[in-house]
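Suppose you are handed only these lines of text.
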Amino acid sequence: MKLFSKSALLLATLCVAIPVMQGCSKNVSSGQLVVGFSQIGSESDWRRAHTKNIQDEARKRGIKLMFSDAQQKQENQIKAIKNFIAQKVDVIILAPVITSGWEPVLREAKAAKIPVILSDRTVDVSDDSLWVTHVGPNLTEEGRMAGEWLAKKMNGKANIVELTGTASSAPARDRKIGFQNAIKNFPGMKIIKSQTGDFKRVTGQQVMEAFIASEGKNIQAVYAHNDDMALGAIQALEAAGIKPGKDVIIVSIDGVKAAFEAMIAGKLNCSVECNPLMGPALFDACEKAVKGIAQPKEMPSKEQCFDQSVAAKLIGSRKY
Ligand code: GYE
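From them, the structure of the protein bound to beta-D-fucofuranose can be written out as follows.
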């Protein structure tokens, strides 16, 4: 008696061979959409909400999602993309950890006729036809909103320390540029120290400890490229006997629940929203891409600035 076909056995073998991926290769008979998703890692509350939203949305739509967590390493992302190509997925979603180094693997995807959708971060490639669309925020605009808010709060005068995101990543680059543009008309707004905290709470805390050790009471404001690093900085300030949110004004980006809690506690002053719930927009883009429907290159989300004055009222309605 023949229990399994050869292809079913092959499929099962592939599933075992790629343990980091959920689901397996294309269900040819059902015509189900198969999407490979190369995620950066789980560095922040934002990233965990992003992963969950995409997995939930795939389930809801009956899309087969192959999920790969790169643990912050580009080489793991490249390996995952090569695997997706080998397994002939219909579409690839890529959240690129850094901006450079993607051209060769994206060319492989293009040669295999697999469309690539970029999530949240952007890539620097000379040929824009290597990706279909970028679903995600306007990162420069987020930095600009943070800078504008801080300049107003500080009446145009502050010594600022900056906790930047992952080195060479699009949000670290663009959030810095946006912020600098916003404060350049205020000569009294000075970034006195700037260092990466890798978008992580613990690293943000360590870098803030070093800032405090070298600058001490000179620090009047903190600009963190994400909430997790701001929360780490809050811990460092408290440990040094400095009151976060009062002695030192703190602005960050993301708008996660923990940031709202910190605002309600009076320790964080402002968080600029960056919406991670992009599963629906990403899969809409995937479905259009397989049908060959033209799409705009940028699909930005609408975002705003939240400060302490609205935190208590809005926390109940926050979805991430
Ligand atoms: O702000 C941060 C994360 O790429 C927009 O990455 C994303 C950023 C987000 O880990 O918290």
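What can we learn from it? Residues 57 and 279 are 6 Å apart (CA to CA). The first helix runs from residue 6 to 17.
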